[in-house]
Every structure is written in C-alpha cells, then in structure tokens.
Amino acid sequence: MKAGSVGSSPNGAANSSATSGSVQPLRDLLASVGEAVANLNTAVVGLDAVEQGHNKPETLNISWNPNDRIAAARKSRRFVVEAVLVRVAEALSEFVFVTARLPRFSSVRNNWNSKTSRAEKLADVAAEALGAKDYLTAGAVLLIHWRNRVVHPRSQASLTAAQEKNLRASSEEIEKNFAGLSIERLLKDFETGQPTLKDVSSLIAMSIRMARAVDKAVSDLSDDDLGILLDYYGLKARISEIEAQTTPSKRHASVIRMLQSSAPGLVPAYSRLHARTTGDSN
After folding, report:
1. Same domain (yes/no): 183, 266
2. Any domain includes 268
3. Whole-number Å distance between alpha carbons of 22 and 26
4. pLDDT 10s digits, 218-257
5. 113 and 230 fall within a common domain
6. pTM attached to this predicted model
7. Residue 19 dihedral angles phi and psi, to the nearest 5°
8. Judgement on whether residues 93 and 227 belong to the same structural domain of the protein
9. Alpha carbon distance 62, 74 (integer Å)
10. Contacts with 81 (C-beta within 8 Å, 6 or more apart), sequence order
C-alpha cells in the first residue's frame, strides 16, 4: 500500500450502527461492511506495530522472519486492503441483487442478460432510484471495478466516460465530503493498481451513502415488495408454520418476534401491511 493513507472511515460514512428504518438488504450490507472495516482497522494497527519494531511472540507458532519488516508490513497491509475491497464489493453486489428483485425494477431487470456485469447492474438500479448523474454511484461502480482488477489481474474493467465525468465534475464536493480525497489521484491509483487506504475507505463510504439513498427510495414497501423479500430470506414458510401452529390471537405477535430475530428490516412493512387483528395480544 502506498504512503499517505488515512483512516478507514472518512466522516464515519461506513459506520454500520445507524440502521433504524433501513430495509433488510441495507441492514445486511451495513453489517458486512462494518465487520470488514473493523477487521481492516485492527489489521492496520497490528501492522503498524510490526513496522515500529514489535517482535513476534515466542508463543506464536509460525515462521516469520522478514529481511525488511517495514516492506513486509506494507505488503501485508496492501493485501488486507484489497481483501476488504473484495469483501465489500461482494456485499454491495448482494445488496443490488436483492434490491433489484423488487417489482419497481422489473424494467431494469428486463434489459439484463447473462453478460450484464455486476457494475452495470449496480449502475442501472441506482440510476432508476437516484438518477443517472449521482457521483456516489460512480464511486460504488469504481469499487466493484477495482475488485474485479484485484481478483482478475487481466481485467480491463473501467468506468464509462459519463461515470468518470460525474466524478471529475464533483471533485470539489468530494474533496470536501471525503476528507480531502483527490479524484485525480484516486483515478490514477486505480489505473496503476496501487490502492491507498484513503482510496478504498472513501469508495466504501461512497458506496454506503449510495446504498442508503437507494434504501430510502424503496423503503415504502408494497405488499408485493414485502412478499418478494420474505420469500428471498426464506421466511414465508416460517410464517406459514407460525400461522398453522399459533392461535389467531397470538399469530401477529409471534410473526413479529420471528422477524425481529431473523429480518428486523422487514418488521415495519409487515406491521403496516398486516395490521394486528382484533383481539391479538402478546
């Protein structure tokens, strides 16, 4: 990893704790990203200790005796940063995959085929929800492209001309909102395959903000939306079991308890669309 790195959560945008009101796909994304960022931070602190001269404990039964501990630590740091990049990109793609199942995105899905890439799907879903000129979407797409270049060294995945234009046109706003991030340097680092911690943490933050905006746009779930998500998470069968095994007066509360445990992001929509029947009690 290159010098000049900064912390891994600019402006706290990658913080996964603020999930109140979020639909389940976003909650899952935030949980996955939050864990990845926490592990990244721990690894970076540990590798800094290696650079500063911390020795391997004798009780740690591994072979480790680098000729240049600073070079070894920085090489390992880059590996960890790239691993987190892959982990976040996978979680982001899953968020798009689940969100795209909602009926409001049917026209978007109809244009996809077996050759439609993850980045293209993300851009299509985000454009449908937020509009085509949102720079956060371009940042999220860049994160997925960077993941592809990490996993597939011969990959030529890259932004479209319009997406790159969106980033460059918003460079001042991005520099202000993402701890001084330089779009010119970000794009150069992407092309040379030399990610800084600042690059990756900023793209994670953009992706999270984009996902939050998409979540807000779809959060007023219809009954069809809810049914699709319940089916995706395998909860329709569990609800049927509860309805078959529970007295009518207890069914609603029992379903809510199950959802609070398994998919809390679906509780508000279920409560609104399946209002408690008269006489239902806890």
Report:
1. no
2. yes
3. 6
4. 999 999 999 999 999 999 999 999 999 999 999 999 999 9
5. no
6. 0.89
7. -110, 0
8. no
9. 19
10. 1, 40, 195, 197, 200
